Amino acid sequence: VALCKEFLFCGQEPFVADEYIERLAWRTPGGGSRGGEAFDPKRLLEEFVNHIQELQVMDERIQRKVEKLEQQCQKEAKEFAKKVQELQKSNQVAFQHFQELDEHISYVATKVCHLGDQLEGVNTPRQRAVEAQKLMKYFNEFLDGELKSDVFTNSEKIKEAADIIQKLHLIAQELPFDRFSEVKSKIASKYHDLECQLIQEFTSAQRRGEISRMREVAAVLLHFKGYSHCVDVYIKQCQEGAFLRNDVFEDAAILCQRVNKQVGEIFSNPETVLAKLIQNIFEVKLQGYVKDQLEEHRKSDAEQYLKNLYDLYTRTTNLSSKLMEFNLGTDKQTFLSKLIKSIFISYLENYIEVEIGYLKSRSAMILQRYYDSKNHQKRSIGTGGIQDLKERLRQRTNLPLGPSIDTHGETFLSQEVVVNLLQETKQAFERCHRLSDPSDLPKNAFRIFSMLVEFLCTEHIDYALETGLAGIPSSDSKNANLYFLDVVHQANTIFHLFDKQFNDHLMPLISSSPKLSECLQKKKDIIEQMEVKLDMGIDRQVESQTLTLNCMIGQMKHILAAEQKKTDFKPEDENNVLIQYTNACVKVCGYVRKQVEKIRNSMDGKNVDTVLMEFGVRFHRLIYEHLQQYSYSCMGGMLAICDVAEYRKCAKDFKIALVLQLFDTLHALCNLLVVAPDNLKQVCSGEQLANLDKNILHSFVQLRVDYRSARLARHFS
Q1: Alpha helices, DSSP H only, in 542-693?
Q2: d(CA 136, CA 171)
Q3: What residues have CB less than 8 Å from 540, skipping those under 6 apart?
Q4: Domain Exocyst complex component Sec10 N-terminal, which positions (predicted)?
Q5: Can you tell me the distance from the alpha carbon of 225 to that of 228, in angstroms, rounded to the nearest whole number?
Q6: Which residues contact 146 (CB under 8 A, 6 or more apart)?
Q7: 632 vs 357: which has the higher pLDDT
Q8: Given this model, what pLDDT does residue 446 score?
């Protein structure tokens, strides 16, 4: 038993011979696997032999069992195959029976259909004959002039009477008038009476809210000529009490929503009825409302007229979008567009003319109101010809060829005016987008843009620049008012706003049209025109002489001339100098720092660096030439070095490397004013002065009061 268990246990896992023998040796006494036992090889061999014999017996027993199971499996396989064959034969027999039954059913069905056709062929003429007989009977009653049948006298059978009279009416149409005029008249009269009764019944049912009765009557009236009148009555009664609020568009939407849910339960063609209701609302209610709102202001108040037109058109298109949810037929988009066009066509034809006229008058009024608030009368300032020549000559020569305009520091640029103009134009662009025909949209948008250019860029910004240029005094003016930089700053800010509106509101309207290139070119021309006038004031191109920078340098010259004294650099008492730098230096540095700040606030981008570089170079040249005018004692030279050091601090505010380098060199040159004669050559060969022309070095050494001494001249030579 233990052997079998061991064998079965090993069969559950992958068999490893070494492990199996190890376990067998471990269980055998004297096998040597247990600690403390003596190894007994004979006993272990005996145990192995016995175990092998037992395994052989077990193998034989298992082999016999396997052979028995194989024989049993083969027997059952044969029996199963035989059974499958029998089932296949049964299935074939059942399939044959099914085919026979299917053929028999098909044969019977064919016979039944043939019989049905024969019965229908007999019954249809019979029914037609019966129906014709009844119609002849009713026709005879009309011919005799007395209606005796219950179907005509009983009001509850109005549906059957309507069916009969409708058929009689069709028959009467084919009869000759001369022989049957009287009966045709009677039938037509009865036809009309029944039609009126049915419409009245439909109206009463609608008022009572009886949807089922309305559906029955509408189905009967469908074959009558008065069916359209039934629809008209339904539409009219639907609108009773529907438009009681001030918002006719919201009322219309609610009404159509309610009718859309109901109309399918009443009429067989609900989309046609709903479309007719919408058409009636547009052509009667909305058209009347729009006319009342617009005609009131059309000639008297263009602003209110345009606002009302935009509002009404927007609300109408919004209503149309809501109605698109309903089933109105195949091409509801075209249907609704035609309805909107029929209402607004007379107003949209000349919309852009009204828009341009209003924008022109409104913009002119905004500008005039601003200039009136400044007590300023706009004057015509030429920009070409003789005027331009004088201006250019005055820039080059600093000769006042004509009187400058005194602006009292006023820039004549207003953020409020600009915002108002841009707001008016923005609203115009919005109206243009909504009210213009798609084919005319780019052209109309361009016209509005042209108005903005005319009044904002030309009449306001350009006029301010022209006035600013005319107000810049010559560079030798003692009281130079450099307000032109304020003009530049405000013009720059305004043009950013102008450019933003161009991108945000105009570009979407013209982006896919040929007008895009035209607008971009017009904008480019405006920019170039303004830049030319800004260049005339702030010298965007460095090589040209400037008005504003000339004024700055001229003002600094006046400060130096008024404040700098010859005794500053050659004091009478060399041992009693108490100041760190001269009064002229303090005032010039203060003035320069203010102008640098003003330039930074007035410009942006590369313009700032360009103007500051030119200003810094001129500032350096002015100080260099100014220092050349004086003689320096030892203490005066020290004071000059202190002044230049202060100028250099001021130059750092420029944040321009070239300017700082120039003042560093100037500071090194000033050291020549105080250095001992024996050290002159060493200082001149220093890093900052080695590359300078000897004439420049010599010119500074000559400014020393001790220059004429033989010792100094000998050392420098």
Answers
A1: 548-563, 583-602, 606-627, 634-652, 657-670, 680-684
A2: 10
A3: 531, 534, 607, 610, 611
A4: 41-149
A5: 7
A6: none
A7: 357
A8: 93
Measured distance CA(568)–CA(624) in Å, rounded = 16
Query: What count of Cα atoms within 13 Å lies in the side-chain half-sphere of residue 538?
Result: 30
**Per DSSP, what are the bridge partners of residue 98?**
none
Give 535-586 pLDDT, tens digit per residue: 776 553 333 335 678 888 888 899 998 888 888 888 777 666 667 788 999 9
Q: How far apart are CA 555 and CA 324, in angstroms?
A: 73
Please say whether the beta carbons of 425 and 452 come within 8 A: yes
pLDDT over 70 at 3, yes or no: no
**Which SS3 state, helix, strand or coil, does residue 266 take?**
helix
Residue with tokens 């345009």: 306
Phi, psi (deg, nearest 5) at residue 449? -60, -40
Residue 386 pLDDT class (50, 70, 90 cuts) = very low
Strand partners, 704: 632
Q: What are phi and psi of 193, to 5 degrees?
A: -65, -45
Residue 11's φ and ψ, nearest 5 degrees, are: -70, -20
- CA distances in angstroms from 593 to 616, 620, 650, listed in the order given: 11, 14, 7
Domain ranges, ordered by start, for the chain: 17-30+43-144, 564-715
Distance between CA atoms of residues 29 and 44, nearest Å: 8
Task: Place 389 in a pLDDT band, splitting at 50, 70 and 90.
Answer: very low
Residue 654, φ and ψ in degrees, nearest 5: -70, -30
Q: What is the pLDDT of residue 468?
A: 76
Per the document, the length of the chain is 717
Closest to 175 (Cα-Cα) out of 190, 188, 156: 188
Alpha carbon dihedral 192, 197, 201, 202, in 10-degree steps, equals: 10
Question: Are the C-beta atoms of 324 and 336 separated by less than 8 Å?
Answer: yes
- DSSP bridge partners of 632: 704
Q: How far is CA 491 from CA 23, 458, 519, 528, in A?
A: 104, 12, 21, 14
- pLDDT (tens digit, 9 = 90+) per residue, 247-272? 888 888 888 888 888 888 888 888 88
Candidate CATH numbers 3.90.1150.10, 2.30.40.10, 3.30.70.260, 1.20.58.1970; the one for domain 564-715:
1.20.58.1970
CA atoms within 13 A on the CB side of 706: 16
Determine how many CB atoms are found less than 10 A away from the CB of residue 660. Answer: 17
pLDDT tens digit sequence for 401-433:
344 555 566 777 888 899 999 999 999 999 999
Q: Which long-range contacts (CB under 8 A, 24 or more apart) does 45-50 make?
A: 48/24
Q: Which among 450, 467, 554, 568 is positioned nearest to 506, based on CA atoms? A: 450
Q: What is the mean pLDDT of the chain?
A: 80
Token digits for 311?
Answer: 């509002």
- Mean pLDDT lowest among 150-164, 243-257, 596-610: 150-164
Tell me: the pLDDT tens digits for 437-479?
Answer: 989 999 999 999 999 999 988 888 888 888 777 766 555 554 5
Q: Which pair of structure tokens corresponds to residue 535?
A: 């260049």
With a CB cutoff of 8 Å and minimum separation 6, the contacts of 4 are 58
Q: Are 568 and 557 in contact (CB under 8 A)?
A: no
- Nearest of 352, 354, 357 to residue 445 by alpha carbon: 352
Whole-angstrom distance, CA of residue 196 vs CA of residue 190: 10
- What was the pLDDT predicted at 528? 84
